[in-house]
Each structure stands twice: as C-alpha cells, then as structure tokens.
Amino acid sequence: MMHSLFKFDNKDRENIFIIAELSANHGSDIEVAKQTIKAAKEAGADAIKIQTYTPDTITIDSHKEYFQLTQGTIWDGRTLYDLYKEAYTPWEWHKELMDYAKKLGIICFSSPFDPTAVDLLESLNVPVYKIASFEITDLPLIEYVASKQKPIIISTGIATMQEIEDAVAVCRRVGNEQVILLKCTSAYPAKIEDANLLTMQNMKETFGVEVGLSDHTLGITAPVVSVALGATVIEKHFILDKQIGGPDASFSLEPHEFKAMVDAVREAELSLGRVDYRLTEKKIKSREFARSLFVVKDIQAGEIFTTEHVRSIRPGHGLAPKHINSIIGKVARINIERGTPMSWDLIR
After folding, report:
1. Same domain, 41 and 100
2. Do 127 and 219 lie in a common domain?
3. What is the pTM assigned to this prediction?
4. Which structural domain, as residue segments, surrounds residue 46?
5. What share of the chain is helix, strand, coil (3-state, %, to 5)?
6. Mean pLDDT, rounded, for 254-262
7. What is the average pLDDT across 303-322?
C-alpha cells in the first residue's frame, strides 16, 4: 500500500517518511539482510531501501587510474569494481527480500543504477524509486525511471543547481510531478557543519517540490533539525551490527541508534503541530495567572482613582492592563476594598 506521503496532499499526509538504507550492510548474507529489514521495522522505519546494480552494470573491472578511489574517502586504495563487488545486493535476492518486507509490513524499494535494474524493479512492482546522488547527471536514466509514473526521490549530493533543475525538468517532461529532492552531503561520513540544511527550504521554493534529507553525518541532530525545515523524507544508513563491517558500516546507525532518531523525529513533528491561536480549555485556565487590574488600596465612593489605587498585578480576574489610562482620573462609584478585581461597574 502506498504511503500517504506520496499523495502530495497535506490533508492526507501522515508522518515524515523515514527510510532505513540497507545499502551494503548485509555482509553478502541474505539472512543478515532479512534480519536487518526486521530490525528496521522494529526501530520505526517506514521503509527499507536497497540498491540495484552489479559491479558490471555500474562500472568495469579496470585498474586504470580513472577507476582507483583516491578522493579522501574511507574506500581509498580500492578500485570501483572491487568496492561494488563487495557492496552490491544480488539481484536474485530482490524478490525474496521484498516479499519478506511485505510480510512484515514495511515498504521495500530500491535505487536503480541502469535501465536493466529499472526493468527488474518494475517486474517486482516497487512503489517508489530513488535516484542516488552520483546518478543525478544521468538524465536518460532519470527519464526512464520517471516514465514509470511512480514517486521518484532524487538525492542532490553532488549536483549543481542547474543539474537539479535538469533532473526535475526531465521528470516533468514525461508527466511525473511526484518528485522529492533530498539534501545530501556526499561525504562518508559527512561533517555536521557541512549539512547546510537551509538548502532544503530553498530547493522547495526554487523547484516547487517536496524535500527531505539523505544524511551521512554520524549522529541524529541533522535529521531532527530537518523536521523543522520542512523535510517530508529522511533517509539514514542502517546496520544490524557494526561488527558486520563493510563499506558503509562506519556511518550507519545500529537499531538502538536508529530508534532514538525515529523517536526524536516523531517528537519534533509533534512539537511543530500547526498554526493555532485558539484558546483551549487549558489556555483559558492558565489565563487566570495573567496580569490584570486590581484595586490595591481602599478607595471610598466619590474618590478619584490614582496609580496608588489601581495596579496591574497577578492574577487575571480584573480588567486587562491596557485599560489603566481609562480608569486613572475617574471617580469610584462605591466603596471598594483592597484586593478587588477592577471592573467597569466600579467607575462612575
């Protein structure tokens, strides 16, 4: 069943859509992958996301310098082919993992990295697609995915504003308006000071789409802050146990950490609430402790009210303090004792 987020209707939308990114955190063991899906569900994730590629669909087996990792990442010293050979999720697992997720009641979808991956995912009827940051410049791939007329989540980690505009335009050209852009810092792990979460709001205004966060920082601060900035999707790498190791382990959250993030995000959502100036029963009761005008010195009938007779004090049973200038200089109608709430019928 499609999560109501993808209706793009504020009245029907449920909570922020929280994605646990499985990525390479299965240790090449399908049972670990299944246990991770189950743990993600128990930790409060709305969805588990896998990645659909093979080493040969995403790169080639070459030791030329172009294919060596030397960008200052945790993977430096390896070739792309070697990294992806370790990290990929076997295609023969996909149906079994998706069936298992469905049985548990958690959405399972994927990031395709070439058209053959899209075809596989279409055969499995995935409800939503994700375009990874490094694929945002592959406009033919984005167009092919968007043509399936399903929600398409696009990470923007390496993109210029023009490249984001091009990606959104491609989706719209094939009639797909169900686009969500994720602010992403493509560093593994990413520094919190590089999160630049205010970009989310600008993307929403600039491109007229829903926005969210794909987070690679080590904590949960960025996801929680993103709630206040309008995130509708939050994605975070998830691992059953960092002892499993693997390319993404160091910046992934374990189940107890992920649950803490989900709980904090849900509390942040609740704290935002809605624009509401109504006076509830509780607010009305609390207004008794507001300031108001009281007679603070005995005054006789016929005497003139001065600032010695009337003051703004707590509690809130008298006239509002804004009326003080309308009372000072007027005449008392009756004898009034100290401690009497000020009212208009006390004035002659």
Report:
1. yes
2. yes
3. 0.85
4. 4-53+88-272
5. 40, 20, 40
6. 97
7. 97
